[in-house]
Amino acid sequence: MKEVILAIETSCDDTSAAIAIDGIVKSNIIISQGIHSKHGGVVPEISSREHQKNIILVVKEALRSAKIQKNDLNAISFTVGPGLLGSLLVGCSFAKSLSFALNIPLIGVDHMKAHVLSNFIDEPIPNFPFICLTVSGGHTQLVLVKDFLNMDIIGETLDDAVGEAFDKSAKILGIEYPGGPIIDKISKNGDPLKYKFSKPRISDLNFSFSGIKTSILYFVKSEMEKDPMFVEKNLNDIAASIQYSLVEILKEKLIKAANKYKISNIAIAGGVSANSLLRKEIDKLKSIYNWKTFIPKTEYCTDNAAMIAIAAHYYIKEKMFDDINICPNPRLNF
Ligand code: KG4
Ligand code: ZN
Questions:
Q1: What is the CATH number of the domain that holds 235?
Q2: Helices 276-289 and 179-187 meet at what angle, rounded to 10?
Q3: Is the CB of 83 under 6 A from ligand 1?
Q4: What pLDDT score does 225 carry?
Q5: Ligand 1 pocket, 274 CB below 6 A?
Q6: What values do phi and psi take at 160, rounded to 5?
Q7: Has this prediction a pTM greater than 0.90?
């Protein structure tokens, strides 16, 4: 019998549903909640209400576009955490009800493991062990991946996530939330070496981004006092310099991790892995260090249910099922 999984992702501000058949993604529908841009960040209460509005729409569309009927499904998976509690609850309750109604198994998936496993959606797929740099709006992790579900965090941020650093720096420049993709876009016309920002001095594999964010804030403030048009006149150069500095920090730690663990299979994942400079730089490191690198398609970098479906495929292989009592865990940590 074919394994037909419906996956649901509602951890933050994207409502997504996907279908995978025997580990192959057949549809991946995402509704992004643009409503948060005017608030300068995700407003949790608004996010859960938007998920509630969108969830039936995305599920219907995921089924339609995969040419699947509800009754063809034989498992339902959803993001159990980490994420915003109210948002997770919407996906969790929906998945529980459908699993109960159709009498099919339920699988609560770890969002961060799913980001790593987004590297298994399309060929080429990494061999084990590999190191994954998982960079998102809430997390910055170096993960030693020993098997599909056997992973250790070998480095992580001590304060802000790198996606947060992109978004907060963008906010300082007057750019709407989420600023990461806009910084990426306007950096293409800027000089990345024009401005320098202080790098964190942490010698192990952990990250810190709060210092660089503060240094960007003070730099912009002091320049604006001298010339109120400073940001407007130099926006592309400031953005490019910020992006360059953030990507340099990520690269440095990734090289350190690869050397320490003597691993040359390197993957990236998470929203910030959609960043064009990071993708280009990983490609350069590949030839310098003779790495094999794995970079998911951009639609699988930012939050999506396809990665939840693929993760569920491996949970099923390990017979990791949940029952109707499962609750979302906003702070889930593997
Ligand atoms: O993985 P994700 O969609 O959600 C979380 O799990 O957090 O990541 C969202 C983060 C946001 O901070 C967003 O600004 C950042 O990913 N992001 C980017 C780019 N696309 C998304 N940052 C830099 N460049 C991009 N192209
Ligand atoms: Zn995510």
A1: 3.30.420.40
A2: 70
A3: no
A4: 97
A5: yes
A6: -75, 155
A7: yes
Going from the Cα of 232 to the center of ligand 2, the distance in angstroms, rounded, reads 31
Residue 331 within any structural domain of the chain: no
166 lines ligand 1 (CB under 6 A): yes
Rounded to an integer, what distance in angstroms lies between the CA atom of residue 81 and that of residue 89?
10
Pairing of strands 106-110, 75-81: parallel
Show the tokens assigned to 255: 């090289």
Task: Choose which residue among 9, 10, 112, 136 to substitute to test ligand 1 binding: the one with the highest number of ligand atoms within 8 A of its C-beta.
Answer: 136
Does 322 reside within a domain? Answer: no
| 291 and 307 part of one domain | no
Residues 63 and 35 in one domain: yes
Same domain as 234, residue 133:
yes
Indicate if 179 and 274 belong to the same structural domain.
Answer: yes
pLDDT in tens, 205-251: 999 999 999 999 999 999 999 999 999 999 999 999 999 999 999 99
The answer to whether residue 328 is domain-embedded is: no
With b for 16 or more beta-carbon neighbours within 10 A and e for fewer, the 108-147 pattern comes to bbbbbbbbbbbbbbeeeebeebbbbbbbbbbbbbbbbbee
**Does residue 274 sit in the same domain as residue 131?**
yes
Closest CA to 211 of 201, 203, 200, 222: 200
On whether residue 334 sits in a domain, the answer given is no
For residue 162, give the ligand 1 atom closest to its CA. Answer: 12
The tally of domains found in the chain comes to 2
Query: Do 191 and 244 reside in the same domain of the chain?
Result: yes
Percent of the chain with pLDDT over 70: 100
Domain that holds residue 88: 4-116+302-317
To test the pocket of ligand 1, the residue of 116, 118, 302, 308 to mutate (highest count of ligand atoms within 8 Å of its CB) is: 302
- Are both 9 and 136 inside the same structural domain? no
73, two tokens: 């499904």
What whole-number distance in Å separates Cα of residue 151 and Cα of residue 89?
A: 26
The string of pLDDT tens digits covering residues 221-231 is: 999 999 999 99
